[in-house]
Specification:
The protein is α/β, with parallel strands linked by helices. The protein has 2 domains: 163 residues, 3-Layer(aba) Sandwich (D-Maltodextrin-Binding Protein, domain 2); 95 residues, 3-Layer(aba) Sandwich (D-Maltodextrin-Binding Protein, domain 2), CATH 3.40.190.120. It contains 12 helices and 10 strands. The strands form 3 sheets. It has a 5-stranded mixed β-sheet with strand order 2-1-3-10-4, sandwiched between helices. Helix 7 links the parallel strand 6 and strand 7. The chain is globular and about 60 Å long.
């Protein structure tokens, strides 16, 4: 009984370390390295420059995360302007008036139709990119997505489950209709198996993101979106519109990160997490110190 009591006490202590406080600012984490790193960057910057405590909510379905921030139950997460517009505001990017930046249009529409907004762009994109193995690209001189059209009947496409969803305009069916692609087959696979699948030739074409550090490990070629199917996906923190009222000064703190990230930097940071298996909190805080953003 004594041992059981000690174990219960240890469990209480351990779980208590990650318990959400009543006044904590809540950041919803994600299931990819870029989101993990950005979450810990935000936490470190807020706690270093304000008196607020931050609670990190473990990853949840992204539509649920949007709902939680939209209704004010939680405060923020990392997002992308194209994701907010196409997935949550259900708006086709092709409807944006000429000359209006996607980011600006998205924030204007979000203000009208939701209770979220994007803070300043962080500087990097994490756009969807169609990719093939280096061997396939070199064999057929592939440089654009349109180059796949004559080869498609012989090729196997595979991507994560969510890309085959019916909801949203940036999905598999709209992609193949936009380009006129007729793949031999199209399969839904675990997001972590795409690079290995290309390398083993179990599949030929996949979808990756431009900030994915795994590209630095594998021989993969990104194809140019020459018919402009994919919208821009600039990274930015998506927050509840009342966050500044609840936590004065937080927006200014987080916006100091704007401009410090590039595609190359984010690929390097995510490589450290995904390939070198470094702790995302350590990677995030090390980067912030190197830029003088925290001590």
């Amino acid at each position: 009984m004594k041992k059981i009591g000690i174990m219960l006490l240890i469990m209480v202590i351990l779980t208590g370390c990650s318990t959400r406080g009543e006044n904590d600012l809540v950041i919803i984490d994600g299931d990819i390295a870029e989101m993990n790193i950005a979450t810990y960057m935000a936490k470190a910057m807020i706690e270093a420059n304000t008196n607020y405590s931050v609670y990190i909510q473990p990853s949840m379905a992204y539509n649920l995360a949007f709902d939680q921030i939209n209704n004010g139950s939680m405060d923020m997460t990392l997002s992308w302007d194209g994701t907010l517009l196409a997935t949550f505001l259900q708006t086709d990017p092709s409807t944006i008036p000429n000359g209006v930046p996607l980011y600006d249009f998205t924030n204007q529409k979000a203000a009208q139709e939701s209770h979220v907004k994007l803070l300043n762009k962080l500087g990097n994109q994490n756009s969807y990119v169609v990719a093939v193995s280096g061997d396939l690209a070199r064999e057929h001189s592939l440089t654009t997505v349109s180059d796949l059209i004559p080869l498609a009947p012989e090729l196997v496409f595979a991507a994560e489950h969510s890309f085959f969803d019916e909801v949203g305009s940036v999905r598999f069916k709209p992609l193949i209709n936009h380009y006129g692609l007729n793949f031999k087959s199209a399969n839904s696979i675990d997001i972590g198996l795409k690079y290995a699948g290309l390398e083993s030739q179990n599949m030929d074409v996949t979808l990756i993101t431009s900030a994915d550090g795994m590209m630095n490990k594998y021989d993969v070629v990104m194809l140019e979106d020459d018919l402009h199917f994919f919208p821009e996906y600039y990274s930015a923190f998506m927050v509840n519109q009342d966050i500044e009222e609840k936590y004065p000064g937080v927006e200014a703190v987080l916006n100091t990160l704007s401009g410090h990230l590039t595609d190359e930097i984010v690929r390097d940071l995510t490589y450290q997490v995904d390939v070198e298996v470094r702790d995302p909190q350590t990677v995030a805080e090390s980067f912030l110190r190197s830029k003088g953003l925290i001590e």
